[in-house]
Automatic annotation (TrEMBL):
The gene is cmoM. Pfam families: Methyltransf_23 (PF13489). It catalyses: 5-carboxymethoxyuridine(34) in tRNA + S-adenosyl-L-methionine = 5-methoxycarbonylmethoxyuridine(34) in tRNA + S-adenosyl-L-homocysteine. It comes from Halovibrio variabilis. Keywords: Methyltransferase, S-adenosyl-L-methionine, Transferase, tRNA processing. This is tRNA 5-carboxymethoxyuridine methyltransferase. It comes from the Bacteria. Its EC number is 2.1.1.-. Belongs to the class I-like SAM-binding methyltransferase superfamily. CmoM family. S-adenosyl-L-methionine binds at residues 36, 59-60, 80, 128. Catalyzes the methylation of 5-carboxymethoxyuridine (cmo5U) to form 5-methoxycarbonylmethoxyuridine (mcmo5U) at position 34 in tRNAs. GO terms for molecular function: tRNA (5-carboxymethoxyuridine(34)-5-O)-methyltransferase activity.
Length: 270
């Protein structure tokens, strides 16, 4: 077995090798992961024009998004640089009886090489919770834009720097919030992102790449700030209803733990 490395790559990115257990336990087997998936299931059909297009899922992780897209009838290429994550996704997809056979193609590759290895151009790209794990998220958005077909859509989800400041303050980390020392270091098994992103940055970077923000929502607007987590299925259902009600309303979406965007690359003639 190869030794687990928790180092950043030369580009300053954090591949999730060695993090499968920690990531699946602390996110997807926990209420926050369930809520994230429930919100994506609710929002993606509203925010995207889904017509069974070919999709590139960049930094696909454990493969939930790829599976969801395949179930909706899309042909998915899931790109992921981490061997561990990709193997987990392949095994899980293989065992899931609901997935159409060969609907998902796997590519072990980081975002930075996709213009060569999977140039598309793609009518639909999903890139969820990846930019905040990169040394240079701004250049990554330029690369995603190059991969998009004219008229194509990018579903981009980023870890919200402004919400991270707010939650640090709520937890009593006032000095940290005031000095804006919010980013994680990517050391060991820590899951605090190294490059949290603000809405202002997404606005600037999208404009710089000629991408139009078509829709935006906050994911987990309330959950992280609750003093008492829901204790019963009925309370969970009420929280989900609350999240759904306010996720696209100003000012609430702005403090979502994650920000979810639909970015459009204009047709050449637009
Ligand atoms: C927080 S996980 C998100 C996984 C999945 N998209 C989701 O929403 O659950 C971040 C993923 O980005 C991957 N990653 C790190 N650096 C990357 C890069 N340069 N290109 C593509 N993916 C990268 C990691 O290996 C990890 O699987």
């Amino acid at each position: 077995m190869k030794p687990t490395s928790y180092e950043l790559t030369q580009a300053g990115d954090r591949y999730f090798d060695g993090l499968v257990d920690k990531f699946s336990r602390s996110l997807y087997q926990a209420p926050r992961g369930e809520l994230r998936l429930a919100m994506l299931d609710y929002l993606l059909p509203q925010m995207l024009d889904l017509r069974e297009q070919k999709v590139l899922d960049v930094g696909g992780g454990l493969g939930q998004q790829a599976a969801w897209l395949a179930e909706q009838g899309h042909n998915v290429t899931m790109a992921e640089p981490s061997d561990d994550m990709l193997n987990y996704a392949k095994a899980w997809h293989r065992d899931a009886k609901t997935l159409p056979e060969s609907a998902i193609t796997y590519l072990q590759a980081p975002l930075q090489v996709l213009t060569v290895q999977a140039p598309g151009p793609w009518p639909l790209i999903t890139c969820h919770a990846v930019l905040e794990w990169l040394g240079d998220p701004q250049t990554a958005l330029a690369t995603l834009s190059q991969l998009m077909a004219p008229g194509g859509q990018l579903s981009l989800m980023v870890f919200n720097r402004d919400a991270l400041r707010f939650s640090n303050a709520v937890k009593g980390n006032l000095e940290k919030a005031l000095s804006d020392r919010l980013a994680g270091q990517g050391k060991r098994q820590r899951l605090t992102p190294i490059s949290p992103v603000s809405h202002a940055e997404i606005e600037q970077w999208s404009a710089a790449n000629g991408l139009r923000i078509d829709a935006v929502a906050g994911i987990r607007v309330f959950q992280d700030y609750l003093r008492q987590p829901p204790a019963t299925p009925a309370e969970n259902a009420t929280l989900l209803a609350l999240e759904k009600h306010y996720c696209r309303q100003d000012p609430h979406w702005r403090l979502g733990r994650y920000l979810l965007y639909t970015l459009i690359k204009p047709e050449a003639a637009e």
